[in-house]
Specification:
The protein is of the alpha/beta class. The chain has 16 helices and 19 strands. Helix content is 43%, strand content 16%.
């Protein structure tokens, strides 16, 4: 078979045939859903629906076989029952098809002899015919540049982030989570069983893909451990690699095997291997996107000394504990520097000028900007973090709170260009329905302005710590060379 580093034909097919498209539009039909998704998303090539019964759908002829299609077919999406797939592969080989994506399940993942036999049969036929296989049992490929997708509602804008997922649901979740945070993707692969093209193939490809600058992954287990770890280590030298590794408990490993036929492995072994390879390990899809956002939107900090600024003494204590537990350093500001901050305000009463810095009642935009510019000059700070606690106000009315928060969000937006140090934003403590909506709108506004925005204290502390650690290790590795 062809080398895994040359997989452009998988992501940029010129023609697609979809097996299993029914003309009965009133019934759920996976083949029809793929057809509709590609049509709505704007796939740039020709699409041909297939079904042995023939017919017509969406004004298009349904071909009874791929051999009947009067065009060269590059790519097939299979949404037919597993028992019919050997004939599909045989016909595809005769037609000269380059790749088949099997949405179809019922193969090695179900752990019975018939499923394993069918998977072995289609793989043998595919190999003999020079066909590469995506899956089986997966959603397939999302590549905005070529118009290839498994969901028409995904963003059509390409970005620098690649994603390898052994779960279709988590691939879709990752895309949604990323897009909501202003993160866009070059290529997303839902790979399922990985019976042919597996996690190592896709990683080696994305490592050489000029469109992909950051690689994220959801991994349950691997088929070729030494090859995968070698690829991880090589790739991580040039591009950030972030992995959400699951199947780390006995129950999780058993579930992984039932899900995609993956062998999960020991968590302790994985932890050591990922650390040695220079991979950033995330604890959730959300954290994977948090770290990706930090890598995209924050300049490289000089160290892990962090100064936190915001409104609320109690919130400041929570933030201090969370950031220290995560491994970041919150230096106590020097007396001389604290005096600079105190002198900006008419009084020290009701405020805290240690670290975190509580700027309660900052009174004017000028004072706020002076505080931020002064802290930006602080030698004790490598990273600045501002927080907005939406429901941490007691005496003031909802109306006054809304006004205060609107001013606060606006000022944060204005201060970005005036600072030289990395600045992250945390939105938290939105318990009431109005404040949840306010936080959602504030997040959209700040993301649009180019900020790295986190939606909880814990997520910010963990992700920023991993972001800082990644750059520390990169810098240390660079000094050793």
């Amino acid at each position: 078979m062809k080398g895994s580093a040359d997989l452009d034909f998988v992501f940029h097919p010129k023609t697609i045939a979809i097996a299993g498209v029914s003309e009965k539009a009133q019934q759920f039909n996976a083949g029809l859903k793929f057809l509709e998704a590609l049509m709505r998303f704007g796939f740039k090539g020709n699409i041909y629906p297939m079904n042995p019964s023939g017919g017509e759908v969406m004004g298009m002829k349904i071909y009874q076989s791929v051999k009947e299609i009067p065009d060269q077919i590059d790519f097939i999406i299979s949404a037919i029952p597993a028992r019919y797939t050997p004939q599909l592969v045989a016909d595809a080989a005769e037609k000269g098809v380059k790749a088949i994506h099997f949405f179809t399940s019922g193969f090695g993942e179900i752990e019975n002899s018939e499923g394993e036999r069918l998977q072995a049969e289609i793989m043998a036929k595919a190999k003999a015919g020079g066909i590469r296989v995506i899956g089986p049992n997966c959603l397939g490929i999302y590549c905005p540049a070529s118009g290839l997708t498994f969901n028409a509602d995904f963003e059509r804008v390409s970005g620098p982030v690649g994603m390898i997922s052994q779960s279709g649901g988590n691939a879709a979740h990752c895309v949604r989570e990323g897009i909501s945070r202003g993160i866009f993707f070059s290529k997303v692969i839902s790979m399922g069983n990985g019976a042919d093209l597996n996690e190592s193939d896709y990683l080696e490809y994305l490592a050489q893909d000029d469109e992909t600058k950051i690689i994220t992954s959801y991994i349950e287990g691997v088929k070729e451990g030494p090859r995968f770890l070698k690829a991880l280590k090589s790739t991580a030298q040039d591009k950030p690699v972030i992995m959400f590794k699951v199947g780390t408990t006995e129950s999780g490993a058993d579930a992984a095997k039932s899900h995609t036929a993956a062998m999960a492995g020991s968590d302790r072994v994985w932890e050591g291997a990922l650390r040695q390879a220079g991979v950033i390990r995330a604890d959730s899809i959300e954290e994977m996107m948090d770290i990706t956002m930090a890598l995209q939107r924050l300049p490289v900090p000089e160290g892990r000394k962090t100064v936190i600024i915001g409104i609320g003494g109690g919130a400041s204590v929570i933030l201090a504990d969370a950031f220290m537990h995560a491994g970041l350093v919150l230096p106590r500001l020097s007396d001389g520097f604290r005096k600079k901050l105190i002198d900006i305000f008419p009084s020290e009463a009701g405020r805290i000028f240690k670290n975190p810095v509580d700027i309660n009642n900052f009174e004017s935009a000028e004072i706020f900007m002076n505080v931020m510019k002064t802290i930006d000059q602080c030698d004790e700070a490598d990273l600045l973090v501002m927080h907005i606690a939406f429901d941490h106000f007691g005496l003031i009315s909802t109306e006054d709170k809304n006004l205060l928060l609107k001013i606060y969000v606006q000022l944060i937006g204005e201060v970005k260009g005036a600072l030289r140090k990395p600045l992250a934003i945390i939105l938290h403590s939105f318990a009431s329905v109005p404040m949840r909506q306010f936080a959602y709108e504030a997040e959209k506004e700040l993301i649009a302005a180019g900020f790295a925005v986190f939606s909880s204290i814990r997520r910010a502390a963990s992700s920023l710590s991993k972001f800082v650690s990644y750059h520390e290790k990169r810098n240390a590795a660079g000094r050793k060379r």
